[in-house]
Amino acid sequence: MAENRHELYQKLSDAVVEMDEEKTVELSKKAVADGVDAYEAIDKGLADGMERAGKLFEEEEYFIPELLMCSDAMYAGINVLKPHIKSEEQGQKSKIVIGVVEGDTHDIGKNLVKIMLELAGYEIIDLGRDVPPRRFVDAAIENNADVIALSTLMTTTMDRMSDVIGILNEGNIRDKFKVIVGGGPISQSFADKIGADGYSVNAAEAVRLVKRLLNSKLLLTTG
Description:
Elements: H1 2-17, H2 21-33, H3 38-58, H4 64-81, E1 95-100, H5 108-119, E2 123-126, H6 133-142, E3 147-151, H7 159-170, E4 178-182, H8 188-194, E5 198-199, H9 203-222
Parallel strand pairs: 1-2, 1-3, 3-4, 4-5
């Protein structure tokens, strides 16, 4: 069964990359019929396919029209699988401010993280792309957020992440928010260097990271 399941995930991923909406829906329905974990099918199938499509876009093998069709296929599959996500995957309604930092307009990775966090039950305040550092902080304060999630795909804009943390420190409110970072050029060592609370390599890891950070925050406030 495990082998069949992984084969199904691969087919879901391929269907998204191949922009085949009809096949994606058909495979998603099969996953439901076979009793496959819906969240896992989205994570290891649909989201994986969209990440692959994003890489093809970065390599200029795919362009905007192809990317949009891949996205349509992914969302069609999500619509089939979402009602079947197990209740334990529904996290508490903690709030997360997310966006791509100023100077960068690449938002495929950010959008994937947003989708996976929403599916895990978090409330997302999406600021979009090319977001000034101050806007992240203002939005986190306005919405009483728990987490600030920063994304970039460019080495030239990485320092904007550091600027967000600098603004939090200047306002003596750094301890109010967990700050996580991610994107192509980002690494754990960079996250440590700028004083971020965590780094995730992909969308699924971002969900696990947020859960860990919020659990530790809860233990600190109740301990």
